[in-house]
Design a protein that fits this description.
3 helices
Amino acid sequence: MQNALSPNEYDVVRSVFDALAQAEWFDRTDANESACARLVLLIHSRGIVDPDALREACEPHAKNRYAKISPS
């Protein structure tokens, strides 16, 4: 059985996901959004519960994996 998030934890995870997914650099595809949500949940599950710290921990990984490809 999966652990459920408390309402406060859900709000933190959701706000970080929303900030990442709405960033100008984020390539908004269904696959990227799903994978990014899993990334935020994974990092949150490692004990990072502060919204700012969670975003700081997630953003470099998200930029590396889900950023729009710049035309060369």
